[in-house]
Amino acid sequence: MKYYIFRNSTVELFFNNLEATYSDYGDVLNCEQNHDRYIFFYNFLNKTNVDLIISEIKSYREMIDLILSNIPENKLFIPFTLERTSKLNFDNSDNRIDKAIFDFNNYLYRLESENSNIKTIKLQDFYDKFPLNDRINWKYYFISKMEMNPTHLSSFNTWFTNQIRSIELKRKKCLVLDLDNTLWGGVLGEDGVDGIQIGNTYPGNAFLFFQQAILELKKQGVLLTVCSKNNEDDVFDLWNKHSDILLKKKDFVICKINWNDKAANILEISKELNIGLDSIVFVDDNPTERELVKKSLPELTVPDFPQEPYLLPQFYNEILTDFFSVHSLTEEDLNKSTQYINNFSRKKFKNNFNDINKFISELEIVLSIEEVNDSNISRFAQMTQKTNQFNLTTKRYTDSDINSFRENSLIYGLRVKDKFGDNGITALAIISIEDNNAYIDSFLLSCRILGKRIEFEFMKYILLKLKKMGLKKVYAKYIKTNKNIQTINFYDKLDFKISLSSNELKEYFLNLDENSFKLSSNIYKIL
Predict the structure, then answer these.
(1) Which of 35, 135, 356, 509: CA 20 to 30 A from 78?
(2) What does the pLDDT read at residue 289?
(3) Do both 357 and 318 map to the same domain?
(4) What are the tens digits of pLDDT across the range 246-265?
């Protein structure tokens, strides 16, 4: 990924983890257009003339407008907000500079709301870690025109990497939580329901804060589960009786409360949710348990738990920033827990049937085809970033990438509903059109809807659509990854012909005139 960075100071060290080209200081005219992404990173100018500073800040708007007029509109543009690195005001009542900064940052947020290819990074979130007088090192400012303190280089690299991850909609899916001395103080089996520590006094208030924060994670689409060595009846009794406990049984999609090995329990959680271990974060106060789980499940993320309860807010902020933050939430994120709970109901319902066709028919599945638009484009991009198991090519795209396909491609999302609820947009196809041929760039489905043959119905819909458009041939690929082996014969089952085959790649074609496809309207309702 190639970046072009517009800057007004020396910032190369802070982006040394990128493949980047840098503008001259203050230059926005010589804009190279062959880059994948563009960054606008202008630091606060430390001058003593207030009017000059305000004039400079106002000029940044014109610079950004000029940049946007010169770069391709489908390329990702990432401006940083403007924040103070020092305060040189002689008059404490003079807030004109702060107002100019505020107005400029609001301008960036407005641009983002109006353009899917613009993602604003709030630099203040990084600077909040440091006092104002530590944000700049005057030695390096005068010697090297370096506005940011170079002692924060490593911290900035990590923070910025997390910002890009959140823009790309990559985050962990599930939080596995221990209970004793993690969600409350004390050991339930020894202290009893009334003896644990949670409430309005320390350390109980710290654990109460932690539960409040985790509940917010659930609201933002993170799946909560429990893995605790405890007596299940004791925990259920606590959840029913203790008035200060915020996280109840209903907030967890899976509870493994037993005396089994925790690594085995977490492996079961992964399988029941049908997500990879690399999508899970395990939080436990016991360092021995953490170490055992780390060794057994190296793909799992296991952060160190704080030794004192008063450090829980800092710990929560770290796991939020490092693993669960996302630049913008989709409708599917907000409904994630409900969707997984509904899926468990479907699995239980399936046990009543010996005939898979009868089971699928009784689900009353409704498939709704959605073309890409401004309201679903983030979800489409998110699916390319997060879907691994049923993903024929595993290509990763951002909002702006998806937007760039609109002119010459068909982009279809699939919303799946049934008698148990709405799964949301859970399938995606991107097909580029060239002359009389179609090229399937991406075809993927969320693991939540697998096992109901929806993938074949979706593909048949697409092939019928292409045939009606008068296209002659369809080309497709299967690109092997460590996780998508289940899709290796997907195109074969639809009578695509192999033109190239190796251990890592299979290429296919299909003559549309020689094939006829029928939708299973007696099983699925397609809108």
Answers:
(1) 135
(2) 97
(3) no
(4) 999 999 999 999 999 999 99
pLDDT per residue as tens digits for the range 273-285: 988 999 999 999 9
* Strand residues in 168-230 grouped as ranges (E): 174-177, 223-229
Distance, in Å, from the CA atom of 332 to the CA atom of 414, rounded to the nearest integer, reads: 13
CA gap 431, 88 in Å, rounded: 56
Determine the Cα–Cα distance for residues 83 and 87; give it in Å rounded to an integer. 11
Range of the domain at 423: 353-526
pLDDT-based confidence at residue 482 (cuts at 50, 70, 90):
very high
Q: How many domains is the chain partitioned into structurally?
A: 3
Q: What is the pLDDT of residue 527?
A: 65
Q: Is residue 154 located within the same domain as residue 17?
A: yes
Residue 379 to residue 376: CA distance in whole angstroms: 5
What pTM was estimated for this model as a whole?
0.82
DSSP 375-418: TTHHHHHHHHHH--TEESS-----HHHHHHHTTTEEEEEEEEEE
Please report which residue ranges of 242-319 form alpha helices under DSSP H: 262-273, 287-296, 312-319
- 383 and 278 together in one domain: no
Instruction: Determine the Cα–Cα distance for residues 5 and 11; give it in Å rounded to an integer.
Output: 9
Whether residue 248 sits in one domain with residue 103: no
3 state DSSP class of 63: helix
